[in-house]
Amino acid sequence: MHPILFEARGVTIYAYGVILAAAYLIGLQFTLVRARARGLDAQRVMDLGIWVIVSALVGAKLLLALQYPRQYLMSGAGLLELLRVGGVFYGGLIAAIFAAIWSLWRYGLPLWTTGDAIAPAIALGHAVGRLGCLMAGCCFGRATTVPWAITFHDRAAETVVGRSRRGAADPRRAARVRAPRTAVPWAHVLELHPPLRRVAFRHRVLSRRQSRRAVRDAVHIAVALGDPRAGRDGDAVPARPAHAPGTSRGGAGSRGMTAAAERRELRVEAEHDGVRLDNFLTALLPERSRSHIQRLIKDGLVSGPLRDLRPSSTVHAGQVFAVELPAPVAAAPEPEALPLTVLYEDSDVVVIDKPAGMVVHPGAGHRSGTLVNALLHHVDDLSGIGGELRPGIVHRLDRGTSGVMIVAKHDRAHQELSRQFQDREVEKEYIALVWGVVQAGRRIDAAIGRDPSNRQKMSTRARRARSAVTRITKAEHLKGVSLLRVAIATGRTHQIRVHLGAIGHPIVGDAVYGGVHRRVANDLRAVQRLERPFLHAARLSFTHPADGRRMTFESPLPADLDAVIDDILAAQEEPEL
To answer: Which CATH number does the domain housing residue 335 bear?
Structure first.
């Protein structure tokens, strides 16, 4: 039975197809309305819905064809017939589930919030779609003799409905339908009640993870359908306590962070649509520097509708992000009269030679004695872009690394220098002493990210990693070690130490990435006494942010590293006994 709406010039339009299309459109539109109300990206939810619908259609057809391969897969006519007929519900359901999971992962949509937006739309679309199924002769429900029941005039449909196992018509099942005075495309409420009730209660269970309001919506749907189990007292089943994004059910933050002093929820307006996440948050939190915002994102203190949050993630209008702002670090750093070697200074920049053992800026466990404390004493003006804790700091060196650094005196210089670092226009060359024999000209291209087993370390095996390139430009082979000139195009945390350790030639003195190496004679006392990685920022070239001059600064090896080289050379000259 295939009710026809109309025919025109040989083209037949069936009621089933029109109602099915209407069900999809109504459900999709309802989903978009609820998605926008919950701060989701409407375009991504629309894409998810389209993928689910298409996958459901394909899955339903595919399972039908697999059930009856001789009828549908053995000829071209059978394939055309497959396009005309319906499908198997379970095939569509299975394909839709897989499509939904894949789409949630691809578009970075939050599972429970998206499910809360979609569930009522599924119920509504299912109800409308069941009308089309009913008109096509696919009816379910209790036998009834009410005046508004429907009689199917198609003999085949009536036979299918009333056929018993032995092949004879079953009068008890056939009695479920009778002819009304006027046949209308409507059904007894029991025809639509079971699927709607099931989906409505599924929505209620899903929504309990979100909020009491969403649960009440689901129960209201069920109550409207006359479900005796729902809302007997006009209220919803008590919901579980709500949990803030980024926290576990245990209450405290699950990311291992201390309690936040303030929690802010920020909605993306049209003016920020399509911008980077860190830029969006910096614009709405002007009291926080961009670098500070980036640290919050990397530390997991920013949550939102995207699956994989990064500073470079793109935000869209309507999305809502929650930011947990830690309690501010105590007071701003104080100027300290620490020794500082200045290689160059003008009204725009300061180039210094950082000693080993000095932390660049204040942080946990280092409130004083940092490079920033020394700069505040020696320099009158510093850029404020880095915030109170990192004034003027454009780039950093590890605590154990010595060498050339550039500092910005004002914001314009800071912005231009930051751009040069980002565009890889700054040339950085280091001197490193590594274990083993390494050849010059080697290029190490391996992404670096946070080590999953130790958050204090970086690794080339991290799942979330950023590209990093290291080049070995020169190499001098000594006794069991190699003295290298290393250039880096990127500036990832611990980049040189991680890369050299990853290729099996860790830096001498690096206890974090090198472990204990005893490949040199025990009489190399300077190597044994070395308390830091043998890594020195020897050369730095950049374009002056004001006048455009190309400037290059070099720093000689400090005394402790120079002593190591002298000991190795002396050991090479001694005759073996």
So the answer is: 3.30.2350.10
